[in-house]
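Journal club side-thread
Mid-discussion, someone asked how the predicted structure for our own chain would compare to the paper's figures. Pasting it here so we can look after the session.
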Amino acid sequence: MTSLGFWPIWKRNTLCIILRLFLSCLNKDICLQ
């Protein structure tokens, strides 16, 4: 996880956004079942 400190900020932000979208999609799928 320490390697994330060397990443550019925009790359980290994109990863966070993708993770959030992915998790929200998972939550919706779980709720719909």
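Post-session note: The first helix runs from residue 9 to 32.
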